[in-house]
Structures are given as structure tokens and as C-alpha cells.
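sry for the spam today, last one i promise. C-alpha cells for design, 483 residues
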């Protein structure tokens, strides 16, 4: 890709962030609309879980395939297709006549979304080649999640209360159209010098693994954890995982290159992403149902109640990006784990939902923690990686985010469904939700521990060793080509 002027690079960054905005905004806006959708469509808790997880599962399953396809066919081309499919899927969701159709159209949305985030990150890493400038660009990218968090609950509540839940999907269409126009005008085409081969077997195994595991978690409360159906899906997930590891190790150009996990920062970023977004998915799902079904708030009031959390996320996310660019990822990760863990403990041990003051305190703590965690995830994942591998590493980190959110909604929803219905009284809801809050507190503790372990001198040494593996392979390939 030719060297671009600073102004052009910033425009490209803005376009890529716009694509992230519509994908991220979709989830935060949708959460506020869940109770209205539940009532109109007559859906159960598991039905509401599927409206979120059908999207995140397809997204997680296709992110790496979309990244490698963009490397081969052209990043700009695939990015444009993603914008069209995502916007079209959003329009279909707004017209869905029932829950089954809505879940199906959410999957169409996800196909388009899978072509946006990893491809946009690859465009960013190849546009901003200087390490410090790239870290700042990635920080801005991470900050957009904070903006979507801050805007999502209020926008969603306003749309649901004034127009209806279907309008939360309409908002993606004009933003997608604007991003499409700007991409055609400003984003240059680029391809990987040596694109990776398609791995259909690995792709199928990933889909089977994620789908069967999530199905088992979501449906276990209704079917029974020891039922034959659930045990079969758990067994399918385990077999898929074992087969995936064995197959990918033998493949020359695997869908998931297991050598990435030799890098402690990369492995840590992957698990941190799962923990952080599992906590986020569970947090949003549980609080949305609590505020509207238990406290009886309107969609707009529920969105305003969550504004302290969203606002702190929006404030801390860009600060985290700048901190990562100047001081590295260690401090943001340690602070993120501390604040998210403290929020979970406040709800689990001190029943923060019982009083509005404690409720807002818990929201603020969680917002600070989540605002700090996103930027260092991507930066840590790509740290020490050669430029040629940065896009793949970022795609794995993005996949981990979606897997985490899917598991968070599935696990927290299963805890709620297994103990009591979301429409139960406040006392019953608090009792049923306590184990879920301890799970969120545990996610914060894991982020704190992994942040400390995977950002020190030993971890950086493993990243350099891993990068050397790929560099030796690249030089060997060049030598063979010349011979």
C-alpha cells in the first residue's frame, strides 16, 4: 500500500472507526431493547440470549476467515462488501416478523460484521507503520468502543420508547451508507504480499465448537444439565476442540496458527479479551433485565441509569489508548482488572442493586475498568509480531472478544434462568444474580492476574522469540523463491 499523507491516514482511521462504531453500537443498543422484544415476541430468557449470541457466534466464527480472505482478494473490497451486508442485515432485522426470523437475520448481520472489524484493523496496522503512531491509532480504535458504550444505552432507550425496538436496527443503515461512501473515496486497496490459504476444515471445526458449546450452556436450564441432548452437545464441543488442535498443528497455513500462543502477551491478551467481554456481556444482559423487568423502568430510563457506566467507559477508553501508547499496556490492564473485580464484589457481597447510590457506584467502577481494558488487548496481542502477522493476531483478539461476549451472555443467562425468571421480585432476582456477580468479579481477578503475568520482561522475551519464528520462516521463503 502506498505511503499516505498524515491527513489521509487520519481519514482512513476515522472510516475504520466508523465501521467499529456500528458493530459495537449494535450490541449496546440491542441490550436496552431486550425487554420490549421479549414482550412483543413472547420470548423466553433463552430466546433473548439467542438474539445476542446468534450474532456474536457467527461473528466470532468468521472473523479469521474474513481477515485471510481480505488479505487475498483485497482489504478495501471485502470491507465494502461487509458494509453492504451488515447494513442490509440490519434492515432485515427491523422487519423480522418473529423471533426465529430475527435470529436468522442477526446471523446475516454477523456475516457482514465479520468483514468489518478485522479487515479495518488490518488496514490500520498497514496504514500506520511507525510503532508509536500505530499504538495511538489502536488506542483511538479501542476508544470507539467506549463511545458506543456511552451512546448506546441512551440512543437505544430513546429509540425504543419513542419508535419501538425495531428502530434500533435502522440506525445502522445511514451510518453504514456513510462509511460506504467514504471508503470508496478515501481508502486505498491493499493486499497481503503472501496471503494465507483458506482452511475450510479448520473453519468448520471452529463453528462446530463455538455453536455446540454455546447451545449447551444456553439450553441447559430448560433441558437439564445432565440430559442426553446437552451431554451430546458438550461431547461434540470437546471432540471439535481436540480435532481442531490436532489438525491445525499439522497444517502448513492453519486458520489459527498455534505458534502465536508461544507468545505470553498474545496468549494473555486472548484470555483477557474473553474474560473482559464475558463480564461485559453478562453485565449488560443482567442489568437490562433487572432495571426494566424488576425495577419497572422504561427503556429510556434504563438507558439513563446505565449512563454512569457507559460515560466512564467513554471517558477512560481514549485515556487508556494514550496510556498504552506512552507507557505500555501493563498499567491499564492492572487498573482494569482491579476496577472490574471491585464492581463484581460490590454487587455480589454488598447487594449494590438494593440502593441507587451503590448501584451507580458499581456502574462507575465497571465503566472505568472496561474503558481501560480494550485498548491494551489489541496492543498486547500484536506487540512483537511482524507487520505481516499483525492483522491475523488482531483478528484472533477480535474473535476472543466475541467468544467472551457469547459465553458471558450464555453463562449469566443460564444462571438467571436456572434460579428464577427475570420477572421475579427484586429479592429473588438479587439472590439468583449473586453467583453471576461472583463470576464477573472472577473475570476481573483473572484480568488483574494475567495483566501482571503477561506484560513483564519474561513475557516480552517470549513475544520476541515468537516473532523470530515467523521472521525466520519469511526469510526462508524469500530464499527459496530466489533459488
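last one done:
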Amino acid at each position: 500500500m502506498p505511503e499516505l499523507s498524515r491527513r489521509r491516514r487520519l481519514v482512513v482511521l476515522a472510516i475504520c472507526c466508523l465501521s467499529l462504531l456500528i458493530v459495537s453500537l449494535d450490541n449496546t443498543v440491542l441490550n436496552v431493547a431486550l425487554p420490549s422484544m421479549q414482550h412483543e415476541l413472547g420470548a423466553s430468557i433463552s430466546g433473548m440470549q439467542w438474539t445476542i449470541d446468534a450474532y456474536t457466534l457467527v461473528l466470532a466464527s468468521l472473523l479469521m476467515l474474513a481477515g485471510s480472505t481480505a488479505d487475498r482478494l483485497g482489504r478495501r473490497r471485502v470491507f465494502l462488501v461487509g458494509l453492504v451486508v451488515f447494513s442490509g442485515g440490519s434492515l432485515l432485522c427491523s422487519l423480522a416478523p418473529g423471533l426465529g426470523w430475527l435470529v436468522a437475520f442477526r446471523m446475516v448481520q454477523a456475516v457482514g460484521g465479520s468483514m468489518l472489524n478485522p479487515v479495518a484493523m488490518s488496514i490500520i496496522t498497514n496504514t500506520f507503520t511507525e510503532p508509536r503512531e500505530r499504538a495511538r491509532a489502536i488506542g483511538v480504535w479501542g476508544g470507539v468502543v467506549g463511545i458506543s458504550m456511552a451512546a448506546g444505552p441512551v440512543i437505544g432507550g430513546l429509540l425504543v420508547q419513542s419508535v419501538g425496538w425495531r428502530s434500533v436496527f435502522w440506525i445502522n443503515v445511514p451510518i453504514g451508507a456513510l462509511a460506504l461512501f467514504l471508503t470508496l473515496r478515501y481508502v486505498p486497496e491493499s493486499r497481503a504480499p503472501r496471503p494465507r490459504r483458506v482452511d475450510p476444515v479448520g473453519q468448520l471445526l471452529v463453528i462446530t465448537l463455538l455453536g455446540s458449546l454455546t447451545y449447551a450452556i444456553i439450553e441447559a436450564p430448560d433441558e437439564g444439565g445432565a440430559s442426553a441432548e446437552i451431554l451430546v452437545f458438550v461431547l461434540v464441543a470437546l471432540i471439535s476442540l481436540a480435532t481442531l488442535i490436532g489438525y491445525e498443528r499439522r497444517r502448513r497455513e492453519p486458520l489459527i496458527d498455534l505458534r502465536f500462543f508461544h507468545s505470553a502477551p498474545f496468549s494473555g491478551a486472548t484470555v483477557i479479551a474473553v474474560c473482559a467481554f464475558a463480564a461485559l456481556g453478562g453485565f449488560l444482559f443482567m442489568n437490562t433485565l433487572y432495571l426494566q423487568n424488576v425495577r419497572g423502568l422504561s427503556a429510556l430510563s434504563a438507558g439513563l441509569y446505565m449512563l454512569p457506566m457507559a460515560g466512564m467507559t467513554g471517558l477512560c477508553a481514549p485515556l487508556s489508548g494514550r496510556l498504552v501508547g506512552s507507557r505500555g499496556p501493563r498499567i491499564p490492564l492492572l487498573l482494569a482488572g482491579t476496577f472490574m473485580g471491585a464492581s463484581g464484589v460490590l454487587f455480589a457481597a454488598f447487594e449494590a442493586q438494593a440502593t441507587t447510590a451503590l448501584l451507580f457506584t458499581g456502574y462507575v467502577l465497571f465503566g472505568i475498568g472496561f474503558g481501560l481494558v480494550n485498548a491494551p488487548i489489541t496492543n498486547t496481542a500484536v506487540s512483537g509480531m511482524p507487520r505481516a502477522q499483525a492483522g491475523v493476531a488482531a483478528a484472533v483478539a477480535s474473535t476472543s472478544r466475541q467468544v467472551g461476549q457469547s459465553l458471558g451472555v450464555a453463562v449469566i443467562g443460564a444462571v438467571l434462568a436456572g434460579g428464577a425468571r427475570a420477572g421475579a421480585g427484586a429479592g429473588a432476582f438479587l439472590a439468583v444474580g449473586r453467583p453471576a456477580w461472583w463470576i464477573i468479579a472472577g473475570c476481573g481477578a483473572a484480568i488483574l492476574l494475567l495483566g501482571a503475568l503477561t506484560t513483564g520482561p519474561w513475557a516480552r522475551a517470549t513475544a520476541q522469540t515468537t516473532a523470530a519464528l515467523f521472521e525466520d520462516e519469511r526469510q526462508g521463503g524469500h530464499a527459496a523463491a530466489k533459488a
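The radius of gyration is 21 Å. ok im logging off now
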